[in-house]
Amino acid sequence: MENKNISVGLDIGTTKIVALVGKKNEFNKVEILGVGKSKSLGVHRGVVNNITQTIQSIQQAVEDAKVNSGQEITEVVVGIAGQHIRSIQHSDYITRENPEEVINEEDIQQLIQQVYKLVMLPGEEIIHVLPQEYKVDGQAEIKEPVGMHGGRLEANFHVVVGQVSSIKNIGRCIKSAGLNMSKITLEPLASSEAVLSFEEKEAGVALIDIGGGTTDLAIFKDGIIRHTAVIPFGGNVITEDIKEGCSIIEKQAELLKIKFGSAWPGENRETEIVSIPGLRGRDPKEISLKTLSKIINARVVEIIEQVYLEIKNYGHNEQKKKLIAGIVLTGGGSQLKHLKQLVEYITGMDTRVGYPSEHLAGDTQESVSSPLFATSVGLLMNALEDKHYVSSAKTIKTEEKQPKKEEAPTKVAVKRKSILDRFGETLKEFLDNA
After folding, report:
1. Are strands 7-12 and 75-80 parallel, antiparallel or unpaired?
2. What is the pLDDT of residue 414?
3. In this structure, which topology does domain 235-299 adopt according to CATH?
4. Residues 388, 386: Cα–Cα separation, whole Å
5. Burial code of 356-393, b = ≥16 C-beta within 10 A, e = fewer?
6. Is the pLDDT of residue 259 over 90?
7. Rounded to whole angstroms, how far apart are CA atoms 208 and 185?
8. 258-297 as b/e, with b when 16 or more CB fall inside 10 Å?
9. What is the CA radius of gyration of the chain?
10. 82 vs 145: which has the higher pLDDT
11. Do 204 and 225 touch, CB atoms closer than 8 A?
C-alpha cells in the first residue's frame, strides 16, 4: 500500500547502496519508516561500471526497505557524484519586455532556462543551475528580486555539470530495477541539507563528505552554495593501501581500518601489535598499530590536502570569502579516529563531524543518525520537500478555480518545482525512447 506522503531517497554509493523510506511528522521532522542497505557492486569511484550488478544491488536495498517499512516503493530521488562532476561560475541576463511590471517568478525561470541552454563540452550535461545573487538594472547583491521593478535582470549562477553517459547509466539502472526516478540531485548538496545548519551556511562553511569511492566538497557562504567538487579518492583507497602495505586481504584491511585505524600515528606505541589469522593454515600475521596508522595517515593527508586546495581555489584566504564556520566532516570516512584533529592541523580551520540527526524525529534508531547516512537522509529530505511543493501546487490550482480579485503570489512553489524536475523528465523521456 503506497502512502502519498511518503518519499524514498536512494544513495548509490561505491561501497553501499541505501534506500531510505520516510515521511514528515507533525513537528516537520523526518520520520524514518524503513532502511534498506546492500553492498554496492558495480560502482567505482561514484560511477556505474557494471550495470547488471548495480541493478541487483539496488533491487536488494529497495526490497529490504519495502520489508522494513511495509510500504510499496515506486519512485525515488537519486544522488549523483563521481569524478566526472565539475562546477563552473556563469553570469547571464535577460531584458524584460515590460519594465513597468514587477519582476515575478516567471522572469527568474526564463533566466534559469537560458543558462540550461549553455553549450557544454561534448558528452556533458548541466545537472543543476543554482542562482547566487541577482542584479536589477545594475543594482547588485540582491538575494530575492521578485516584486522589484527593473528592465534588466542579471544573475550569477553556480552551474554543476556531469557526464551524460554516467547520468544515463544511473537512470537505466533505476528503470531496470523497476523504479521511477523523480529527480536526480548532486550528493554533496544532499549531504549539506542533512548536516549543516542555516547559521553555518551563512557564516561560511566547507562540507567534506568522505565516502567509499569519492570525497565530495560543498562550500557555502552567505547562505548560498559557492563551490562544489568531487575528488576521486575515498575510504576505499585507504583500505587498498593497508591491503598492499600489510599484505593481507581486503576484508581484513577494512576491519583493521575500522577497529584499530587512526589518522594520527603519534598516539600508537611501537609495542601495540595486532595479530591477523593467516589464510588456509598459514601462520598468523603480526601488524604493529603504528605502521597501520602511518599508512592511513599518509593517504588521509593526501585527500585532505586535495580538498584544502579546492577550498583555497574558492578563495577562503580572502577576507570577504572567509569560511568562519570552518569545516564539517561527514560520510563513512569521517568516523576515522583522530581525523578531526588531523584536518584542523592541516587546514587550521575549526572542524566538527556532522551527524544528520538534527532533522530526524527523536525516536530514530541510532544507526541511521550516523554520518554514514548523511547523503541518504539528505536525499530523503529533498524528496519530501518536492512532495510538499507538489501538494502546495495542487492546493493553489484548486483555489484558482474560484474567481479572485488578486493574483496569488503562491505560484512560486509550483514554478520552482518544475525547474528542478526538468532534468529528471528529460532523462525519463530519453529512457522511455531508448
Report:
1. parallel
2. 41
3. Nucleotidyltransferase; domain 5 (3.30.420)
4. 5
5. bbebbbeebeeebbbbbbbbbbbbbbbbbebbbbeeeb
6. yes
7. 17
8. eebbbbbbeebeeeeeeebeeeeeeeeeebbbbbbbebbb
9. 23
10. 145
11. no
